[in-house]
Every structure is written in structure tokens, then in C-alpha cells.
Amino acid sequence: MRVLVVEDEKKLGELLGRGLREEGYAADLADRGEEALWMARAVPYDAIVLDVMLPGADGFEVCRRLRKDGVWTPVLMLTARDEVDDRVGGLDAGADDYLTKPFAFEELLARLRALTRRTPVERPTVLEVGGLHLDPAAHRAWRGAQELDLSAKEFALLELFMRRPGITLTRTQLLDGAWDIAFESRSNVVDVYVRYLREKIDRPFGRDSIETVRGVGYRLRAD
Ligand code: CA
Predict the structure, then answer these.
(1) Cβ atoms within 10 A of the Cβ of 187, count?
(2) CATH class of segment(s) 127-220
(3) From the CA of 143, how far away is ligand 1's center (Å)?
């Protein structure tokens, strides 16, 4: 396990580095945000311990930039005070967990163990499949440069397809993913909405990206 410790307080940084090495981790130290950014991009760390209060780019900024660049290494943020704003800010910036200073080293180890048990998953901000783009956070979608005008359900359905390109999704899967459980599941609502979706994302563009898989469901072409 290789950990990057980002802390500008020299004593604390060295203490953490030494403690981690005694526990069998490989630990690298950075004392500035910019330094942490290039190290984290260059080395596939298993986890990053990131102090919020840093000169220059602070911990929030470092975390945001890493996620923006597609670096999904788990981040344990160190916040100076137990303040809601700091914790919320850290999690919003893409941190996976936080620890309030002062903390017991045992707790840092426990949290690192928990973080490194999870495999980093890609959480791209914009989905792209065969000329379609979808931004789940902004709730917007495009075919090429053309923005699509989708209802909430059409959007939910398209997102389901775009998260599993090339995979056949059954009507039940689509229903479970885009409608709440109270919905009457015997209705043909999925077929109706797939037809709506085709009218918006395919037909005006002369495309045929949603395939019908007879007797099973539908599939979004991956190419
Ligand atoms: Ca600091």
C-alpha cells in the first residue's frame, strides 16, 4: 500500500509518514498542493491523506482538480476544526472521508484501511456513448453539439442506457431504474418511453442507437 501524505506542517507530516511506514505502508510526503497534484497524477497511490489548510492550492482545490483529471484515488481529508462547512466542502470536492484534527493515529489507520478496501471506481462527470453526451449533475444531454430537450423520465432512461452501453437491459431493469417501486409494472410504459426517447435522440439525426432485443428489452449501441 502506497500512501501520499499532503501536509505543510513539517512535524506532523513527518510523524504521519513515520507512523505509516512502521505499519508497513510506503509513504510519500508533499507539503504543497501543486506538488501533491503532480505526484498523485504520476503515481498510482492507494490512498491520499490530504490536509485542508495548505499554502497555495488548499485541500479542497487539490481534491477537485484530481477528480476533474480523472484521478480517483481515495482521499482522506484532514480538517482543522469539526465544522460542518469544512466537512461538506471536502466531501463535495470529491473526498471519500474526513478526519478532524487533532486525531488519534489509530483512527487514521482504521480509516485508511476502510478506504483502501474499496476499489476506486471511475465517476466521470459526463457520460459519452457513440456521439451522445450526458451530464447527470447538470441534467443536460446532447447528440453531437445539439442539446436534447428531454423530460425527466426520458433523461433517467437515457442515463440508464448510457451507464451500460452495449448491454441489453430488460424492461424490468429499466422500470426499476427509472420509475419508483410503486409504479404499475405490467404496463407498457417502458416501451412508450423508449419510443419517445428514439424520437428525440435518434430520429431527428437519422440514427438508430437504441436496439430492440426481441422478447428481452433494449440495448444502446456502444459505438
Ligand atoms: Ca496544514
Answers:
(1) 11
(2) mainly alpha
(3) 45
